[in-house]
Amino acid sequence: MQYLLLIYQDERAQGEAWGQLSEEEQGREMRAWYGYTEELQKSGAHVAGEALQPTGTARTVRVDGGERIVTDGPFAETKEQLGGYYVVDVESEEQALEWAAKMPSLPNGSVEVRPIMVFPAELPA
Asked: What's the chain look like in SS3?
């Protein structure tokens, strides 16, 4: 079964904290993420994953009366923002929760674990 692990953090606080880290501390943080990803890949559970650009680069699209409306930023104001994700393929929800609990960002954020819907390869006639 596949699960989406959504990584949430306060990007402003994270950015300020990152700027206060030495190069050595930044390297340690990045090695923690690379180590997590490598462990996930070696387990065979890794399907995909990426970090996202800050919310200031996001655009939200709506359609009103057939007209496309594009606004700057994310669709909702929240304390924490979506910063990245992993897709994992595991045997159970418990395993997905275990992978989420290993994320290096957890001391400063949260991880939403959500099952991915699986649709049939062919639509019924």
From this structure: CEEEEEEEECHHHHHHHHHHCCHHHHHHHHHHHHHHHHHHHHHCCEEEEEECCCHHHCEEEEEECCEEEEEECCCCCCCCEEEEEEEEECCCHHHHHHHHHCCCCHHHEEEEEEECCCCCCCCCC
